[in-house]
Each structure stands twice: as structure tokens, then as C-alpha cells.
Amino acid sequence: MASSVCVVGAGVIGLTTATLLQDALPAGSSVTLVADKFTTDTTSDGAAGIYRPGKYFQGPSEQMTKQWLEVSYKHYKKILNSEDATEAGVRAVSGYLFSNKNPEICQSPLMKDIIDEYRECTQNELDLHGQKYGIFCNTLVVECRRMQPFLMDRFKRNCGVVRKQHVNSLEELADEGCFDLVCNCSGLGANVLANDRNVTPIRGQVFKVRAPWIKNFYYYENETYIIPGMDLITLGGTRQFDNDNLEVSTWDASGIWQSCVQVMPSLKDAEVVRQWVGLRPYRPSVRVEKELMDFGGGKTLKVVHNYGHGGYGVMSAPGSSMYAVSLICDFLQHHQYHRAKL
Ligand SMILES: Cc1cc2nc3c(=O)[nH]c(=O)nc-3n(C[C@H](O)[C@H](O)[C@H](O)COP(=O)(O)OP(=O)(O)OC[C@H]3O[C@@H](n4cnc5c(N)ncnc54)[C@H](O)[C@@H]3O)c2cc1C
Ligand SMILES: *[C@@H]1O[C@H](CO)[C@@H](O)[C@H](O)[C@H]1NC(C)=O
Ligand SMILES: *[C@@H]1O[C@H](CO)[C@@H](O)[C@H](O)[C@H]1NC(C)=O
């Protein structure tokens, strides 16, 4: 049966969920996207977008985490091999994960068996970069400055409705009475919206520079990284827990610049296009689950949450959103079953 679903949040998670929902819902259904910030105003916009799950990336269970990561890689790989790759901002990238302290640090067990190439560095490679331990791998970058408009375009072409609005509470949406279900993809906004104090900002500051001669990515144990996107290279970074300052710090900037130029001296000639700060919506484990919200007086609202992706929301968006969509379809049917019985 046709349904009407509202997705709150237009970051990479909300947009991915909304477009996948359009494909999954029966004909005649409608999807409305509600958000107070779009495209360049979202956290997703400035993310480097590299597919490199950190050790602490966690879905609801270990098995589901693995599944999300596999599904996400396949999804992006399919776009990479299609004619949409450039417009969608998906490219292949090879590069290095390095450590001077400990061989464990540069390992990435979560992507080892998923990506196309993953091997220990040769002694030559290590000597060249002055590092003790390292992994070379071939992975993907998804640039949200392209991916978000690409998804928005698809969403609108499939008759999606877009509304710019700040949502003060989910009850507001329940009061409208026109949605069968709301999907909560509000990122850090869930802190307030979902009253979820497990969601904490991890502040990240970066440079976006033009340096077309740099082809590989480089990732060091101390949060220094160089990640090529479609046109620009992201230089990072910081990882400041429970810090919600969105101002660019000159202190952080000089630290990032020094470290990056130290590992890659040619960067001193790079043109700085912009500096940016984003707040990663961290949660010990990503929350994708159903909830029947009860506002009292017989007023309820079906909600499926999809937030708390921390520093890995771009790379895990397809997997986590496909799972959210399956919960949504299930929840909607459940509803109709009860109605039919009444
Ligand atoms: C420096 C940095 C580098 C990063 N690098 C990577 C990387 O290499 N790879 C990777 O996978 N990830 C990376 N990330 C993480 C990634 O950016 C996030 O995980 C991802 O953007 C989260 O997406 P989201 O859609 O949940 O949140 P957002 O993009 O923040 O979107 C949230 C949406 O919800 C809306 N919203 C919230 N509250 C309300 C409300 N009350 N009413 C209406 N609308 C509301 C907002 O307007 C917005 O549209 C990085 C992050 C930073 C800061
Ligand atoms: C998101 O979920 C949280 C936690 O339940 C809730 O407080 C908040 O209102 C929700 N926000 C939206 C926009 O759905
Ligand atoms: C980070 O690591 C790189 C490579 O080992 C090094 O050159 C750089 O100085 C380090 N930066 C900081 C701030 O420790």
C-alpha cells in the first residue's frame, strides 16, 4: 500500500535514505525531505569522503557493521563504473596508511577483505616516506560537494518533495498528521531532536587545496592526512572530542599545514582554496532502529532513526541507509496489518 514518509536531514545520510526509499516504496507513495540546512551548509559537504573505516566504527552489531561496509563499497563501486561517476563525485584512489609506533595502528581489518587491493608496504615504500609500518591500498573517495547535488537531483526527478524548515520536535511532525512514518537522519541535530546525549561532536578542521600533482592519499597515525578528491585535496586534520566550535582556528591551521608540508614538501606551493570546520556526529554505535514515539493522548508516531555516523558517514551511508529502508518498509507493513485487523 502507498505511504507517505518524511525524512528529516539533508546530509549524505538523509539524501541517501530518501532516494533509496523512493526505489523501495510501492507506487503512489511519497517521500518528503525536511531540513534546515542543505548542501554546502551541512557537515557532509566538507568531508574528505574516503572509504577507510576506523577500527571503532560500529553499527548495531558486528555482523551488521560488516554488511553495511560491504554494501556501501559495492554501491559506490557501481557508481564508479557507471557514466555518473564524475557528476556523483566518486573516484578511485590508492594510497598509504602509515605508523611509526606500531604495526597495528595502520591496519584496517574492517576493509581488508572488501576493497580491491590491500597489502603491507615494501621496505622501499617505508624508507621513501620515513615510516616504520604501512599499508598500501586501493580504495574510493566520495566527494559530497558533488554527491549531495547528484542525489538531490535524483530525488526531485522522482517527485520527491523538499521543505526547508527547522524541526523543533518530532511531535511537530506528528501533529501535521500526514506522515505514516518519519526517518530521523538529523546527524548531530539528534542530540537535541532525539534527546540523545550519546551523540557528541568530534571537531575536524581541514584545508582544501589545489595540488593536482598529488595522486595518492596519505594517512598518518597522528591525524595528519592528505586525501585527493575530484578537484581539490583535503589536508587534515583535527579530532577534538566534545568540541563544537565551528570557527576556523589559526592555531589548528598552522599545525595541520606544518605536518602536511613536512610529509609532502611540494604542498608548500599548493593554492589554498578554503578552510573548513565540521563536527562529526559521533555516537559509540550508529543508531539505526525503529521507535514508536508516544506523545500521550493517543498521539503516536512511527520513527526510524539513522544517525550517529561519526567520522564515517559518507563511506557507510548506502549500507546504513539500506538497512534503515528495510526497517521502514517493515514498520509500515506492520502498521497496515494492525489497521486491517481493526
Ligand atoms: C573534517 C571531517 C572529515 C571527514 N572525513 C570523512 C571521510 O573521509 N569519510 C567519511 O565517511 N566521513 C567523513 N567525515 C564524517 C562525515 O562528514 C559525517 O559522518 C557525515 O557527514 C554525517 O552525515 P549526516 O547526514 O548524518 O549529517 P549532516 O551532514 O550534518 O546532515 C544533518 C542534516 O540534518 C538536518 N537537521 C539536523 N537537525 C535538524 C532539525 N532540528 N530540523 C531540521 N533539520 C535538521 C541538517 O540541516 C542537515 O541537513 C568527516 C567529517 C569531518 C568533520
Ligand atoms: C531524532 O531522534 C531523536 C531521538 O529520539 C528525537 O529526540 C528527535 O526529535 C528526532 N529528530 C527528528 C528531526 O526526527
Ligand atoms: C605527524 O606525523 C608526521 C609523519 O610521521 C610528522 O611528519 C608530523 O610532524 C607529525 N605531526 C605532529 C603534529 O605530530
From TrEMBL:
<dbReference type="InterPro" id="IPR006076">
    <property type="entry name" value="FAD-dep_OxRdtase"/>
</dbReference>
<keyword id="KW-0560">Oxidoreductase</keyword>
<feature type="domain" description="FAD dependent oxidoreductase">
    <location>
        <begin position="5"/>
        <end position="325"/>
    </location>
</feature>
<protein>
    <recommendedName>
        <fullName>FAD dependent oxidoreductase domain-containing protein</fullName>
    </recommendedName>
</protein>
<dbReference type="GO" id="GO:0003884">
    <property type="term" value="F:D-amino-acid oxidase activity"/>
</dbReference>
<feature type="binding site">
    <location>
        <begin position="43"/>
        <end position="44"/>
    </location>
    <ligand>
        <name>FAD</name>
    </ligand>
</feature>
<feature type="binding site">
    <location>
        <position position="280"/>
    </location>
    <ligand>
        <name>D-dopa</name>
    </ligand>
</feature>
<feature type="binding site">
    <location>
        <position position="167"/>
    </location>
    <ligand>
        <name>FAD</name>
    </ligand>
</feature>
<feature type="binding site">
    <location>
        <position position="225"/>
    </location>
    <ligand>
        <name>D-dopa</name>
    </ligand>
</feature>
<dbReference type="GO" id="GO:0071949">
    <property type="term" value="F:FAD binding"/>
</dbReference>
<feature type="signal peptide">
    <location>
        <begin position="1"/>
        <end position="18"/>
    </location>
</feature>
<keyword id="KW-0732">Signal</keyword>
<dbReference type="GO" id="GO:0019478">
    <property type="term" value="P:D-amino acid catabolic process"/>
</dbReference>
<keyword id="KW-0285">Flavoprotein</keyword>
<keyword id="KW-0274">FAD</keyword>
<dbReference type="GO" id="GO:0005737">
    <property type="term" value="C:cytoplasm"/>
</dbReference>
<comment type="similarity">
    <text>Belongs to the DAMOX/DASOX family.</text>
</comment>
<dbReference type="Pfam" id="PF01266">
    <property type="entry name" value="DAO"/>
</dbReference>
<feature type="binding site">
    <location>
        <position position="311"/>
    </location>
    <ligand>
        <name>D-dopa</name>
    </ligand>
</feature>
<dbReference type="InterPro" id="IPR023209">
    <property type="entry name" value="DAO"/>
</dbReference>
